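input
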Amino acid sequence: MADAWTRRHGKVGSAVTVEAPQGIPRSWFVPVVYKDRLLGFFELSLDLVPQRYSSFQRREGALDGCPPAVDWLDPETIRRRAQARLDSGETAGKPYLSFDALPARLAWAVPVTSTDRGERILFVAGDAVFEGRAPGEFTGGPG
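output
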């Protein structure tokens, strides 16, 4: 599914479970990296059938569109990004790979809690951090 340069130089990383917002496993995210860059990823169904390959490369062999791999693969980096958007009194929980409303919009979900505001979700996709829907308001699901 990937181009010839990626097949020759890219390394397939460890699979990460993609969870539906309700915490139900939905698919597998399998990164393809070169040095410190994320070239793209495979998404596989739970029974390991390839669903898609998505590339960050703008052209074969080019790395200029490829994000640092830690932005997508390191939960602590992802949690720190979310923490930068916290309001006073909020705490960021453990990130999990999920999606924003539609399964094709993969992003790390970071549960955020506070004693006065309850819980909300911040999504982190690369270097972008944005507000998610309140728990129970997701339109995405396990299907």
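quick obs: The CA atoms of residues 27 and 46 lie 5 Å apart.
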